[in-house]
């Protein structure tokens, strides 16, 4: 119960970041300069050393506490469909979080480059690495959406009934899928031509 409460509390903190983060990427629709402006504005908050340590700590805690929650549920004989979806989406989300955070922060430190639009765009634009990174980013957003929409459905079910809760689930999921498609479309060069600077061709 302690882990579940902490997972929920830390989950709210990381969700605020994820929504702002995806909004930032969505705004690339209006151009790379707009994306960069919003990125720099958001960084004023989340790249403050103390804030960043807390944020990354919360993400790592989500993965750690998520595994504990799965272990606790493992011994339960009849798992509900809610619990099963939390486990499956949680596993994918956990793998995405670990890879994504190590890649962004690791490459920022190792190559000392700005992890901006070009950093993310290159891996979904260039063949053959895009074969991995397009589904990877899509699954990262999808697993987050499923995890959040599923909790939301459960929490409002008693108050609004099963049918309306299901409608909320479908709307949240569809919105995030649209966001994922829009981001990938723009970052893959569908809206305007993208020329990746040479410094990003590191692998
Ligand atoms: C962005 C990261 C994540 C967020 C925002 C998040 C959020 C949440 C929230 C709000 C709940 C509901 C807690 C409650 O019932 O009060 C939950 C449940 C759960 N989460 Fe996550 N979570 C994240 C990552 C993960 C990961 C990485 C895993 C697995 C490795 C995971 C596994 C689970 C499981 C198994 C439950 C169901 C627990 C139960 O009902 O007994 N979560 N999550
Ligand atoms: C298509 C989707 C996504 C793209 C293109 C993307 C891209 C990026 C980029 C470029 C950065 C570096 C930001 C900076 O230097 O300020 C970053 C950082 C990060 N991303 Fe994502 N991301 C995506 C989805 C997600 C999702 C779904 C999550 C969480 C569930 C996430 C979590 C993070 C975290 C925790 C950081 C590190 C923030 C920091 O610098 O402290 N991202 N991402």
From TrEMBL:
Annotated GO CC locations: membrane
Transmembrane portions of the chain: 12-33, 53-73, 85-105, 125-148, 169-194
Native organism: Arcicella aurantiaca
Protein's UniProt name: Succinate dehydrogenase / fumarate reductase cytochrome b subunit
Alphabetic keyword roster: Membrane, Transmembrane, Transmembrane helix
Highest taxon listed in the record's lineage: Bacteria
């Amino acid at each position: 119960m302690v882990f579940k409460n902490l997972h929920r509390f830390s989950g709210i903190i990381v969700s605020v970041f994820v929504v702002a983060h995806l909004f930032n990427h969505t705004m690339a629709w209006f151009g790379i300069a707009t994306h960069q402006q919003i990125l720099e504005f958001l960084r004023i908050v989340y790249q403050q050393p103390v804030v960043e340590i807390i944020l990354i700590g919360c993400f790592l805690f989500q993965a750690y506490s998520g595994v504990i929650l799965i272990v606790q549920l493992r011994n339960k004989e009849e798992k509900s469909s809610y619990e099963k979806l939390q486990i499956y989406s949680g596993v994918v989300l956990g793998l995405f979080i670990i890879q994504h955070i190590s890649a962004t922060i690791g490459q920022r430190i190792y190559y000392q480059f700005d992890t901006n639009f070009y950093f993310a765009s290159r891996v979904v634009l260039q063949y053959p690495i895009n074969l991995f990174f397009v589904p990877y980013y899509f699954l990262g957003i999808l697993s987050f959406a499923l995890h959040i929409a599923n909790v939301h459905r459960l929490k409002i079910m008693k108050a609004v009934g099963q049918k309306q809760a299901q409608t909320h689930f479908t709307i949240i999921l569809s919105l995030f899928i649209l966001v994922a498609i829009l981001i990938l479309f723009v970052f893959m060069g569908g809206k305007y031509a993208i020329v990746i600077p040479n410094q990003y061709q590191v692998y």
